[in-house]
Amino acid sequence: MIVLFTDFGFNGPYLGQMKAVIWQQAPQLPIIDLFADVPVHNPRASAWLLASYSDAFPTGTVFLAVVDPGVGSAARRPAIVRADGRWYVGPDNGLFNVVAGRAAELDAWHVGWQPERLSASFHGRDLFAPLAAQLALGGMPEAGLLERYDSETWPGELFEVIYVDHFGNLITGVRASSLDSRISLRIGDITVPRARTFSDVALGAPLCYENANGLLEIAVNQGRADEYFEFGVGVGEPVYPAP
Amino acid sequence: MIVLFTDFGFNGPYLGQMKAVIWQQAPQLPIIDLFADVPVHNPRASAWLLASYSDAFPTGTVFLAVVDPGVGSAARRPAIVRADGRWYVGPDNGLFNVVAGRAAELDAWHVGWQPERLSASFHGRDLFAPLAAQLALGGMPEAGLLERYDSETWPGELFEVIYVDHFGNLITGVRASSLDSRISLRIGDITVPRARTFSDVALGAPLCYENANGLLEIAVNQGRADEYFEFGVGVGEPVYPAP
Amino acid sequence: MIVLFTDFGFNGPYLGQMKAVIWQQAPQLPIIDLFADVPVHNPRASAWLLASYSDAFPTGTVFLAVVDPGVGSAARRPAIVRADGRWYVGPDNGLFNVVAGRAAELDAWHVGWQPERLSASFHGRDLFAPLAAQLALGGMPEAGLLERYDSETWPGELFEVIYVDHFGNLITGVRASSLDSRISLRIGDITVPRARTFSDVALGAPLCYENANGLLEIAVNQGRADEYFEFGVGVGEPVYPAP
Fold this sequence. Notes:
Three copies of one chain form a homotrimer. Chain A is of the alpha+beta class. Chain A has four helices and 14 strands. Chain A has helices spanning about 15-25, 45-55, 95-100, 125-135, and strands at about 1-5, 30-35, 60-65, 80-85, 85-90, 105-110, 145-150, 160-165, 170-175, 185, 190, 205-210, 215-220, 240. In chain A, strands 2-1-3-5-4-6-7 form a seven-stranded mixed beta sheet, covered by helices on one side. A four-stranded antiparallel beta sheet of chain A has the order 8-9-13-12, with helices on one face. The first copy, chain A, has a three-stranded antiparallel beta sheet with strand order 11-10-14, with no helix packed on it. In chain A, strand 8 and strand 9 (about 170-175) form a beta hairpin. In chain A, helix 1 (about 15-25) packs parallel to helix 4. In chain A, about 50% of the residues are buried. The interface between A and B is medium-sized, with 31 and 31 residues.
């Protein structure tokens, strides 16, 4: 199974072009669209999303993960990471650093292989998709073309909003398990009460809860948290632990 | 075949996470994204959409239908409905009441089964997706865990806008077959002329027509009906039969 | 493989309904979502997009391409085009004229066949999807129902913005290969410098480059080109060759 994790957008041709490449190499391989709208040009916030939303997938899953503002530059190197039995293919720009930091077993390689035809701006299609297909088929790119390296690791929690979902919920980079369960979050100067699920607070009231992937999230019961606070709230907004 | 019908949004991880659960249980099973953007937190409008957009699917189709503002509360019970040979899995909050009202053959069950790991806020993934996969594979959750009940039914037509599509067309909850074919719709104080298709009226002019699923719909020939009327128009806007 | 190319939107039921028709006729057939958001009601801009984004697909691919403001009118005729071994099914309204103009081998037919149930407004589902499935299975609609015709052809380059992508990049209808590589593009009164990839210019600076499908595109390094210029820029905005 290949899982797509990008900032390419569902709109436009990019996801379709990557899938066409994968299916020409590996027909019938299941492909999951996980995220196509992680924060654009933002490998840092995306790194926390990737770690938190990939760990429920079975071992052997291949994540084709591309958030790649430096695409085509010499500085940016393609990477393959194996973390606790899952594979990650994409740019070595920090995107895999939280996955790496949480892994019990970790390997990382830089990739020297290049396809015959490599565009300057779409390595997701030309370079990473063929590598992902090869890994999903159980192969490994030629050893001579891989150079093992020590993957950088980042700390566990990011006290920021890292994603705003379709409902306007504010997903943070903080795992609920990292804090005492009586601790809530403050955003701006407002401390949001901790609750178990939406309907535990009044209609239209805000809550902070452990979301279905273990992250602390700020929502409004049947409303939109991204429009609730007077100050504008978006990706990057800091949050603070609040007793 | 499993058909997804939710208010989760195409963006974000939710559809992908449900598909991953389904494919781990039922590899290669075809999954159709029908709606991921029904009116948010609105099982009532969604109930009319579901009934009108599911009846063209073959018997045996399983609809994984989740519009679930009360997720995680004790009051909201999970349901399985079989209506004219099609299966519906989701919350018992009114979402299946129009399907039920139109069915010639109808069965309904409350589900007692719970997965080992049930989050408080994402039953689409944890509870309903495994049930849908089981049904699509031809199985039925253990009889002892099901409690048969009388499904509530709702009347046939809803004289409101229930969905605004990508073109700005206003889909109503009124079946064309319920009215004489000379009857049109009034919206605000404007009676929109009845026509067969877009090009039967002048460029930029509004029309009311029977859409491809049998519902009355208000559109503008090569324009946007949701921007045409001076009063703002959206989901919930009432419409009236007009001679 | 069937590739979907429409202005129907990812949101709403239309893509799902077409896929359901295809999979009932051709189970397991791979379907690629290439574009669901080409410029609405605009077969002209879409014709250039289609030609530029379809030529990388293998021979035998079937493009189900629908941008069809005249749907349901008598004037608009359904067409099948075979161009260099790829199939195109959709309305004969100009949508295939650039594909035709670039093809070395070209055949075109008008289709007389009609399904038993043909709605007035959704030929994508009722007419073109069954035709596409039949072609993808290797069949050809009954010869007696096809009328060969000379496909109109359009010139090679369109000096306009034809698509704005998720990043705000402005894709033009100009192939990079049609101009000397030192030539750049002017938009409004601004000449945008030519570069190889984003990171070749300063952060926040605009560039004009050959995109991964061979078209000239205007972007801003880690910014949005559609918000960069003081004059509003969208589909249809003219561009000019600039030495």
